[in-house]
TrEMBL record:
Transmembrane segments: none annotated. Residues 14-471 form the Aldehyde dehydrogenase domain. Gene3D superfamilies: Aldehyde Dehydrogenase, Chain A, domain 1 (3.40.605.10), Aldehyde Dehydrogenase, Chain A, domain 2 (3.40.309.10). The keyword Oxidoreductase applies. GO terms for molecular function: oxidoreductase activity, acting on the aldehyde or oxo group of donors, NAD or NADP as acceptor. This is Aldehyde dehydrogenase family protein. It comes from Undibacterium jejuense. It comes from the Bacteria. The active site is at E245. InterPro entries: Ald_DH/histidinol_DH, Ald_DH_C, Ald_DH_CS_CYS, Ald_DH_CS_GLU, Ald_DH_N, Aldehyde_DH_dom.
């Protein structure tokens, strides 16, 4: 059994998590320790003890540790990608790409550790000097989702350590393997005891403890809206710093002047790849009525070429849904869409494959009304809804008609419309002629409205969450 990592040592848990592949339910990946209250207390106490000395650690020590982690991840990219594909269901090329991204993130923040900036200002009062510096927040609890089981922990853990914080990582119970592999690499990176801790286990035990314990100074959470709201409430009650990423219902606008091949590729990639299990997926396809029939016909032709199957099988485009619960949710929304009067023109059915897995044919609905439930609520599966628009202005209105605001895309050859859309789309990230899903690791990530709360993730923007600002005055 793979153990928990607490205070620089491996520990047994209170229970165990058995992980199976969604591509093949007979493929047992491993057993992983699951934390109980005793292990949670050990980890929080260890991170709290280590925080005081680690906040004054040298930046070169942090940089060296993060660089070492990134190097090993990169060297083991195929091995770790295979594990990720087995346990989460991404196709092997996607999984290897995610591992490579995680390596790049650690490498990036190894250098950011050396670039923690401050300001020296002249005071308005003669004889005084003013220094503005950044300090670590302290103990950071990280609650990660299942859909990017190594990249999202990487983009939270790496900046936390780079800026001098101690970390407690709680991965999703569905994907303990990738987090354990990451922890095993981190355990050999030279970090002092207590700086990094791994607590696999249920949210009601581990997550709630991290959100409510006053020794945990900040929480970075990625997951569902409901859980995010509970984390926010708990952190607000004790005035802890909090950062939330909670999903989206992202639009892709296709204007009449768009290159049809570019638009269809962006829609297919953004809506269905990674089995649609991305918060940045474009689940609302808003298409100018002038090219509406041509776009739908091209989408059907392209979807007919998509291969769904075992994540490790060569030539597969889309792997399985992550588990039975998520599959049931996808099928429930497909039924809702049919009942609402949306027209299913492709997919939406279970697929039989040589192995017993959660295989779902990507579903494309057309003639959707923007008020329909399946158009407004996040499904988190390979389901897309096509909505007709009268013109650009109508398309923009439809794009912004959502409680979410993570990402928004537009396909057009008009510089005027692209420029206007970038300014007026109510989203934290805007894509022009590229899929809504797919972002760089060195630039800010985050949304508006119900998608995100708190400081941005990734890139140099991460310093805002993982540090606090101190202003000092000196009489010279």
């Amino acid at each position: 059994m793979k153990q928990l990592f607490i205070n620089g040592a491996w520990h047994d848990g209170a229970n165990a998590i058995t992980s199976y592949s969604p591509s093949d339910r007979s493929d047992m990946i491993d057993e992983y320790a699951s934390a109980g209250t005793e292990q949670v207390e050990l980890a929080i106490a260890a991170a709290h003890r280590a925080a005081e000395s680690w906040r004054y650690s040298g930046t070169q020590q942090r940089a060296d540790a993060l660089d070492k982690i990134g190097t090993e991840i990169n060297e083991r990219k195929v091995e770790l990608g295979t594990l990720l594909a087995r346990e989460e269901g991404k196709t092997l090329p996607e999984a290897i790409g995610e591992v490579g991204r995680a390596a790049a993130i650690f490498k990036f923040f190894s250098q950011e550790a050396l670039r923690i900036r401050g300001d020296k200002l002249a005071s308005v009062r003669p004889g005084l000097e003013v220094d503005v510096t950044r300090e670590p927040v302290g103990v950071v609890g990280i609650i990660a989702p299942w859909n990017f089981p190594i990249a999202i922990p990487a983009w939270k853990v790496a900046p936390a350590i780079a800026y001098g914080n101690t970390v407690i990582l709680k991965p999703a119970e569905l994907v303990p393997g990738s987090a354990w592999a990451l922890a095993e690499i981190i355990s050999r990176s030279g970090l002092p005891e207590g700086v990094f801790n791994l607590l696999s286990g249920p949210g009601r035990i581990v997550g709630e403890a991290l959100a409510n314990d006053r020794r945990v100074d900040a929480i970075s959470f990625t997951g569902s809206v409901g859980t995010g709201q509970r984390v926010l409430t708990a952190c607000a009650a004790r005035r802890a710093k909090v950062q939330l990423e909670m999903g989206g219902k992202n639009p892709l606008v296709v204007l009449a002047d768009a290159d049809l091949d570019v638009a269809v590729n962006a829609a297919i990639q953004g809506s269905f790849y990674s089995t649609g299990q991305r918060c940045t997926a474009s689940s609302r396809l808003i298409v100018d009525e002038k090219i509406y029939p041509a776009f739908i016909a091209a989408m059907k032709d392209k979807l007919a070429q998509i291969k769904v199957g075992h994540a490790l099988e060569a030539g597969i485009d889309i792997g399985p849904v992550v588990d039975q619960s998520q599959l049931d949710q996808d099928l429930r929304y497909i039924a809702i869409a049919k009942d609402e009067g949306a027209k299913l023109i492709f997919g939406g059915d279970r697929l039989a494959r040589p192995t017993e897995g959660y295989f779902l044919n990507p579903a494309l609905f057309v003639d959707c009304d923007p008020a329909m439930q399946h158009v407004r609520e996040e499904i988190f599966g390979p389901v897309a809804s096509v909505i007709p628009a009268k013109n650009y202005e109508h398309a923009l209105q439809l794009a912004n008609d959502t409680e979410f605001g993570l990402t928004a895309g537009i396909c057009t050859t008009s510089l005027k419309h692209a420029t206007h859309f970038k300014r007026h789309a109510r989203a934290g990230m805007v894509m022009v002629n590229v899929p809504t899903a797919g972002v760089d690791y060195h630039v800010p990530f985050g949304g508006t409205k119900g998608s995100s709360y708190g400081a941005r993730e990734q890139g140099s923007a991460a310093v805002e969450f993982y540090t606090t600002v101190k202003t000092s005055y000196t009489f010279a």
